[in-house]
Amino acid sequence: xxxxxxxxxxxxxxxxxxxxxxxxxxxxxxxxxxxxxxxxxxxxxxxxxxxxxxxxxxxxxxxxxxxxxxxxxxxxxxxxxxxxxxxxxxxxxxxxxxxxxxxxxxxxxxxxxxxxxxxxxxxxxxxxxxxxxxxxxxxxxxxxxxxxxxxxxxxxxxxxxxxxxxxxxxxxxxxxxxxxxxxxxxxxxxxxxxxxxxxxxxxxxxxxxxxxxxxxxxxxxxxxxxxxxxxxxxxxxxxxxxxxxxxxxxxxxxxxxxxxxxxxxxxxxxxxxxxxxxxxxxxxxxxxxxxxxxxxxxxxxxxxxxxxxxxxxxxxxxxxxxxxxxxxxxxxxxxxxxxxxxxxxx
Length: 346
What we know:
The chain is mainly β. Helices cover 5% and strands 45% of the residues.
């Protein structure tokens, strides 16, 4: 993708007076980028879809922008975003422009910081930049207009292959492909837009959409872990760029154990005790969304799970009917090769 750009700024008393007259006495404050799209041969290209993605606290909202032939006018100040899109820009908001065109690789802009956006020090932004990854950026100040030609490239096939270091394919895994935006929220959750999903074939391969953006991959494979996740807290998420025809993503098998507990109290079986677990992927249980009930002891005080992944959890605990914690432990440090006997009250 290539870009060419220029910026127009109003200056001088005569120009200011002319503008004031044209605007009915009000000084212009609209700041925008006029984008003109070209195909891979440099000819004008009409986009199929232009969307402004407003991202805040892990959520994303899509706003459709209408193209004028091969051109799109992108608002860069908060007032214009409110007027044209009906949305307010908050201090922690980010924006991304998403463009699709027939037979060409879609593009996603860099994060937009809007003119007039409130900052943490109670000031408002007066200058900003706009551009696309790996391409020219334009600098804008309040009231300026930039023009930018964006040349898109032809789409090419992209394949993601899941495999171990030894080359064993990971087949049947569900792969959700997303356009990645941000992870700047209190849980570091991936803010993204899902564009495709499917399962890997017998060779561990799946075809994914082409695009000039950072790709977020969410993988669902219960017996596997990514070798290089984006964060340890999210062991099945990866953010990368797909630059080759085939991208290999490495995984490793989880440790699998049979969880067998015998719970006793006063030398007798302890039925009805509830076993809870907390996922290890979020330190300290941030957000409170990763704990849950696993099972309840039967009449013999037993719990038996044939397939248990101790590395998924950092805490197990037993509660009685009143919610009082009776016992707790870390399954990653427990010897699960045999039956674990828990004597309550010891």
